[in-house]
């Protein structure tokens, strides 16, 4: 693996991105030629950029300009709409859940490691309860009911255990509490869907309605502009003229390309090609001055396969989770003026074993037939085990009762449409092999029969003897695998119709107090800030659901508050 700095030096944003140019230097920002100007320029209108802009509009009289290559919303709009919040939020109190900042800190220390300082983590946990009323002020809805069910996306519940809070290692350090706060739709009628749209629709409207915020869509940043002192004073952009045929066509093609299921299955490329051709042929160059600062919030880099190949080849076979805008452009913009990067090798691969919930009672093995992980773990831990131990390969072993229960659980009407497709049809039909013995089932999927049989024999013996599971799985989930026929399901990265998604976690190093982008010398780069997945943050070690969106809001607040405090 090459160094991340070397990789970025020779890398552009890949086949779907805007090429990032060498920074432009002007002698004096006051005398330079500009096409537009503002006090704060926010690059990227996902949740992090939107939080930056709205916070800046509250805290100052600054004139704020938000630019976005597409329609805004980013990957946040296509997400589950879940924020990891706790310490006694309004929602927790309403449903009778007790939580404390101390318990939240102690649990998150297990997940975040040393990716941020303890002081930063404590500040986030103290502030997190205030995120709910802040988002509600802009029209986002939160509330109960809550669920105790182990799930990756609740049905008609909106507070749940979204991480590893109830694993044995976690229980040793903190009292568990449900902290996954899912945005609610305007009406609870209708089918269950991902809630990213319920989160971002009112936020996008709030941006459009704010008196001192302007939003320019179909506008991509192509290089930063700095003055003679090295301060970032503006951005050069490529923009499709508002109201033009090119802007209309680009919008329609990207709306078609934005279907998450089509994107993950790799069948939305024709629409993307048209949109990219429009960008290349019809966009014009403009220069925008930012008097107080620039906030980079363009997302991650999982949709830049060449960069992933360079910095994190272990995860090159994951299916990119996000939008084509997650091409690393913001990171490369920061790097172009000397910004330091960190943890670019960190990719979170997600292989959930729920739904169906009964899968947590199965046994997940690698190509050597040995068990890989505690199957009740959050999907990111399971994905990490599969890639770090087994090259992205894994097979789930079930017996007849477990398999039949899985089939029944997948009939739940609250299970999402893409889950019915990828699990109900992909995993349970296309990638499941059955046989009257474990050895025969193992042979069908290419696993060593004797090793598989020995693994299950040990697992069953521990249950029969009442011994604790060596991987720490809860006793209630340890079901003996004894009844034929036996089923082995391929859950590896190569199962096209049950894709194994990945999300990039690294980014620009930032000052944990101000959000300013740091140079290689550890000093802030004047006028430049980063937020969300463009920056190293709380989720940049090991992910749990909702931590990225919560960090988007919190890091967006941080960048905005400090940028707008600067003299214009």
Which architecture of the largest domain would the CATH scheme give at its second level? 3-Layer(bba) Sandwich
Largest sheet: 9 strands, mixed
**Average pLDDT level:** 93
Name the poorly predicted regions.
none
Helical content (DSSP H or I, runs of 4+): 25-40%
How many β-strand stretches?
21
* Count of domain modules: 4
Q: Beta-strand percentage?
A: 15-25%
Give the N-terminus to C-terminus distance in angstroms.
43 Å
Content-based structural category? alpha/beta
Radius of gyration: 24 Å
In CATH, what is the homologous superfamily of the largest domain?
A: FAD/NAD(P)-binding domain
Question: How would you briefly describe this protein structure?
Answer:
The chain is built from 20 helices and 21 strands.
